[in-house]
Amino acid sequence: MKYTFVLFFLFSACAKPPPFDIIEATVSEVHQAYEAGTLTAVELAQAYLYRIEQYDDSINAFIVLNPNVLAEAAALDAEYDLTKVLRPLHGIPIVVKDNYDTAELQTTAGSAALAGLIPPDDAFQVKKLKEAGSLILGKTNMAEWAFSPYETVSSIGGTTRNPYNLSRVPAGSSGGTAAAVAANLGMLGLGTDTGNSIRGPSGHNALVGIRSTMGLTSRDGIVPLYLRNDIGGPLARTVTDAVRVLDLIAGYDPADPVTAKSDGLMPASYLDYLDPDGLRGARIGVFRWYMRPDSTHPDVLKRMEEAIADLQRGGAVIVDPFEMPTLKLEESIWCEVFDHDLQQYFITRGPDFPYKTLADIVATGKYDPSIKSGLDYAASWTEPPCPDVYTHQPNIDFRNTILSEMEKHSLDAIIYPTWSYPARKIGDMDSPSGDNSQYLSPQTGFPAIQVPIGFTDNGLPVGMTFVGRLFAEPTLIRLAYHYEVISTKRRPPSQFN
To answer: What is the pLDDT of residues 180-209, one digit of tens each?
Structure first.
């Protein structure tokens, strides 16, 4: 078995799956069971470990499991027995992408060069979720150094497979987190999104993924790709559970100065915006540039048209098509900052950390061959890093162009298919990819929420993205939640029920 110590845990604790059914279980359902005395955190953690042992050899979502998770669960059970108070995520098993610092577990960014190296403390978001009572089941596989939006392959974790079809990719780079949450190997997950990597894997795995406004959530303790675009956030099976995570990780962190922009722009709780009538009267623009018949799979088009009809049924005003004639999506305004940002991150790992620069990593030879050209290019870059999306003029101009068009039509949000094509087969890098995530949100700082909208005729998930103005998470949550209530498109992968 892949995780032999898990079996030790299970047998030493006489573990059997509890009568509580963890398939598609929500935080609310688990907490109700805790309060009723029909479930404990230890039993729930055991049940997830049991499923991981059963199924992860097929999916390969995890790099490492947490050997202390049952002891941590027992401590939470003892706390609840004493206080009769549940923390916001009390005893909730989560999975964490392996580019988040975790004080007890290695953090590798998918690189074999970092195997066994444990950070000195937790990333800000990990710390917040631990304080809320969550249990880290393990660290999930990712595209090495978060390079690929298309596949989840790393030198330390191998290849992660899509649980809806094991011959398909889960997208990248947060594919391990997405696959684990989709297959009910964890209840909630943390991923990161530079240009795609929360929303894309969520779309390919029938999940909800939130890329928040740049500055709403801290990037402290996250291995960077392009820090100026990087966002960490939740992947979950429901809008409500994704928002539960956002509610805990949002806010100012002195270790990440960009979070000062959130001051005065956050509600008391994002959970207050789970409005079952949130679509009524909202104005939503359909960005059909990402729905062109010559560059979109016909099943994706069908699901999008059905989603648009559902939005109208919920009371939304649909502006269709929503066009931005002066927007130049073909012009890249990405900036190469990886080596610079990585050097700054390496400093945070302490004076004994064995690497100082990307060149040190390249010199080890410990990387998947698929990223060699990307590593070489990044290591050879000599230009100074460009500013963040709030101060870099091309990004400002891009954002203002979109805002101007949204204002012209009084839009609350823009929608489009997260990917125009379903998940490709593993190893296929030639078929159309259909990634629509790289521009409207990452290059503006705008928030985006991906929701599942159904499946292709052969059972592959299809997703839709809502994009809104800066710090408009409350609006997007209202829209996404009401859409989920009236559409109920999520279903688990049948092979892992």
So the answer is: 999 999 999 999 999 999 999 999 999 999
- Quote the pTM value: 0.96
462 neighbors 300 (Cβ within 8 angstroms): yes
List the CATH number of the domain containing 427. 3.90.1300.10
Residue count of the chain, please give it.
497
Residue 239 host element (H or E): helix 239-249
The catalytically annotated residue of 134, 155, 173, 441 is 173
Task: Dig out the tokens for 255 from the structure.
Answer: 């270790």
Number of other residues whose CB lies within 10 A of the CB of residue 222: 27
Per annotation, catalytic residue among 97, 130, 139, 489: 97
Q: Which of 89, 33, 452 is nearest to 244 (CA)?
A: 89
What is the number of structural domains in the chain?
1
Distance from the Cα of residue 17 to its chain's centroid: 28
155 included as an active-site residue? no
How confident is the model over 360-417, as pLDDT tens digits? 999 999 999 999 999 999 988 888 888 999 999 999 999 999 999 999 999 999 999 9
- Name, in order, each residue with C-beta under 8 angstroms of 72's C-beta and a sequence gap of 6 or more: 66, 135
Cβ burial 83-117 (10 Å sphere, 16+ → b, else e): eeebbbbbbbbbbbbbbbbbeebbbbbbbbbbeeb
Taking Cα atoms as reference points, which of 225, 255, 229 lies closest to residue 342?
225
Range of the domain at 313: 4-496
Active-site residue, 111 included: no
Q: Given 111, 148, 174, 197, which residue is catalytic?
A: 197
- DSSP for 251-314, written as a single string: S--TTSGGGGGGTT---S-GGGG--TTTTTT-EEEE-GGGG-GGGS-HHHHHHHHHHHHHHHHT
173 is catalytic: yes
Q: List, as own/partner pairs, every contact residues 295-301 make where C-beta atoms lie below 8 angstroms and the sequence separation is at least 24, other chains included.
A: 295/420, 295/432, 295/434, 296/417, 296/420, 296/421, 296/434, 297/420, 297/421, 297/422, 297/434, 297/456, 299/422, 299/456, 299/457, 299/462, 300/417, 300/419, 300/420, 300/421, 300/422, 300/434, 300/456, 300/462
